[in-house]
Amino acid sequence: ICVTDGYQVYHTIEKEREDLRIAGCWVHARRKFDEALNVIPKAHQNKSDAFLVIKQIQAIYREEGKLNTLSSEERLMQRQLVIKPLVDALFVYLKKMEPTVPASGQLRKAYTYILNQEKYLRVFLEDGEVPIDNNASERAIRGFCIGKKNWQMIDTINGAHSSAIIYSIAETAKANNLKPYNYFVYLLEEIPKHMDGGDRSFLENLLPWSEKLPEGIRKQ
Known about the structure:
There is one protein chain. The chain is an all-alpha fold. Helix content is 57%, strand content 3%. A two-stranded parallel sheet has the order 1-2. Helix 2 runs antiparallel to helix 4, helix 2 (26-38) packs antiparallel against helix 6 and helix 4 runs antiparallel to helix 5.
């Protein structure tokens, strides 16, 4: 399951692959209404439709935030009991108000986006492991986006592919509470010891979440 924005290519790939499912990102859905709200004079914002939708999404996030410490099974149960009714109510409201929305403008774009994404925005309600948004991924790549001028020399497909692998390993190491530098040193020391044979099963023990990694590369 991959949590993404509404870019159509993701949905096209999902149709082509039986092992892939796309889940929608609620931050991107909310962002559209925030953009619609910003074009309304401040004196009238708290009475606008965009403001009311944002408040409903905030209520969904408020309840989701209470589930951070739960297991995936407990989180799924609470999502079904508490959050699903809020999501249902939001889409009932959106479908009721949609005919009254102007045919063009930011609010129309926001309505079109969220209604087209309903199927994907509901996926997190069916699996306690699926996050409500892809903020974690966006935070992880922010440094690369800000510093991209530093690696403009990566101007080949192979170079970009190799860089993407390295960045992914580094961020996954961080997500698993490892020290990235120490982890890379360990990989570069261990992998050559096993390259003579064709068996690559040893790689399972080197993955960032492996319990067989040495304690010295874990953060306290």
